[in-house]
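Example record

Each entry pairs one chain with its bound ligand, pyridoxal-5'-phosphate.
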Amino acid sequence: MSEILLCSQSYKNNLDIISTHIGSKEKLGVVLKDNAYGHGIEEIAKLASTYGIKSVFVKNELEAKKIAHLFEHITILYGSLSSNAKNFHLTIHTDTQLDNLPQNSLIELKINIGMNRNGINPENIESVLQKIMQKKIHLFGVFAHNGYGDDIGEDFENCQKIFEEIKEKIKYFAQKMGFQTPRFHSLNSSGTFRSQNIQDDLVRVGLASYGYLTTDFKIPIAKKLKPVASLYADKICTHFLKKGTKIGYSGVTQLQEDSFVSTYDIGYGDGLFRFNGNQEAFFTADGYLLLPRSSMDCFSALSTKDRICVFNDATILAKIFNTIPYEILTNLSSFIKRTIV
Ligand SMILES: *Cc1c(COP(=O)(O)O)cnc(C)c1O
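Structure tokens for the complex follow.
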């Protein structure tokens, strides 16, 4: 059956590059949301924990529970909590989320610094802090997400300035209202790589830890990142087919010459995007031509090999499907077997 191989050396290599850049292993938080960007949350969590990572970020409580035993701090970006594990920190995007939280919950407050998507607006910080104090909730962290990390231009710096002001404001309120200064963080992969002398207590790196960066400008050290995941498919069967034979739905592929053609056990139902014949030619990582159309559970290729490597770098598929590596990776079905190598 199809399989995703996870290269532990590459993952370690990427974390080394990031921690060297930020000048500390302690400040490195990794993002494991969405099944660790499709890599497999339990497998990647194991590698991150072995590396010494203490803080991670997941999508929801279900993901947090799978890795609860491995980290000191697990921030849950969305949803609510049914249990109150000491290492789970719920993200608060709006004040009404505080209403049903039990006393002593540890939360992280998300502030809107210009993406205008999620989080508390800066002008409401004081009233939200008052509510947190009243409800005896523990403010463990305050964070923002800069939506301009990939882009050339001044928006990125402008948003960071807003966050610096917010930090000062929160530190002031901490003294005035008598709560402990929370941890502060604001940088994702691209934001981390474009920043020098990071003042935050933590970075939140997702994509770069998996071996990719999608900035519009060149960052030399990013070239050393190595993709962690390779997707393998196994042969279902082989046919010898005459020139002119049609293959697959609607016979989109018509053979130019007599050929051996095999089908392999991954389709769009497994999260590999569907080749319908309108994309440019796609060759697997080991050089075999994929023959559209792909089906829900299989695709055909000009190969007789028992196992082929569909991709070992999601950038190529992202280009073909006019999207970003994030989408190619997160789409991979959690039913595919993951193996750490
Ligand atoms: C997904 C996410 C990140 C990680 O972003 P990358 O670009 O993958 O590094 C960081 N912070 C938050 C809040 C996120 O949702």
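The pocket of pyridoxal-5'-phosphate is lined by residues 31, 33, 77, 145, 188-189, 204-207 (CB under 6 Å).
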